[in-house]
Amino acid sequence: MRHQANPWITSNLWLLSAAMLPAIILVGALLFFTGWAITFSFTDLGLTGRKAVEWSWVGLENYERLFTRKGFLESLWTTVIFVFFSAIVGQSVLGFLLAATLRGTVSTTRSVVEVCIMLGWLLPDIVAAFLWSATTSQTGLINSLFVVPFGLKPINFINDFALPVVTLANIWKGTAWSYLLFVAALDSVPREIIEAAKIDGATRWQRAWLVVLPIIRPHIATNLLFITIWTFTYFPLIFAMTGGGPGRQTETLALFLYNQSFARGNLGFGSAISVAMLLIVGALSTVYLRMLREPK
């Protein structure tokens, strides 16, 4: 097969190998740390103290703890709620609706909306967390404009409605990705097909449901794949806003992993949590990858 390849490729294999070296190193590092996590998930490795140097094998004990002790299942349920309403319902649906509504329009309103969307995406997580914490506090903007002027008691939204507030903050932070992807997807739909459906008498809703959505189905699956993975493992915004509290109301799996591994120093148990997260994300990715396949 080598004599059938491009002559330049066969004479410059060393150059191509050198260009691939950074990618090979990166993949090797990812495989190494994945193997590290899997291996130490079967140990009682600690972050500090005697267990940091004199750890021992505990078999499946860490994985049994996931289902027999409080913490993991509660955090998994919190993560499912957060991912569903923040990523799937919030970012994906809102991004599509904005892209479909603003498509083909050139106006000040569209520019303002796009600036607001991009601002949330570009702001550092810590800054976004500070803005949302300040806005939803008892002396924040919401209470000052919509609660106190009507003679009502100030509401501490970040304490009383922690998970909904964090969910809304993440929707505002991440909708830009879905919006940009759906703008590109809708622009790829041939106008001739839309016009043909209109001539055949299809309503606007029928054109969207029966024509546009099937065409951009791979884009929808790609968007869901990325935002589900990102949101499932998301950490900075929640940690900066609530730290997983009040209580454990916003303790997603990412925060539960952090608390067990670094706050409590249980690296072995934390490794088991990370492996469980890897398996869950892998299963979700398989579902989305099946959606990417063309229907037979």
From TrEMBL:
User: Membrane-spanning regions, if any?
Assistant: 12-38, 76-100, 112-134, 154-172, 224-247, 267-289
State the compartments where it is located: Cell membrane
Pfam families to which the protein is assigned, alphabetical: BPD_transp_1 (PF00528)
Q: Which CDD domains match?
A: TM_PBP2 (cd06261)
Keywords on record: Cell membrane, Membrane, Transmembrane, Transmembrane helix, Transport
What SUPFAM superfamilies does the record point to?
MetI-like
Show the GO cellular component annotation of the record.
plasma membrane
Q: How does it sit in the membrane?
A: Multi-pass membrane protein
- Which GO terms of type biological process are on file? transmembrane transport
All copies of domain ABC transmembrane type-1, residue ranges: 77-290
Q: Which InterPro entries match?
A: MetI-like, MetI-like_sf
Family assignment?
A: Belongs to the binding-protein-dependent transport system permease family.
What name is this protein filed under? ABC transmembrane type-1 domain-containing protein
Q: Which organism is it from?
A: Devosia insulae DS-56
Tell me the classification of the organism that encodes this protein: Bacteria, Pseudomonadati, Pseudomonadota, Alphaproteobacteria, Hyphomicrobiales
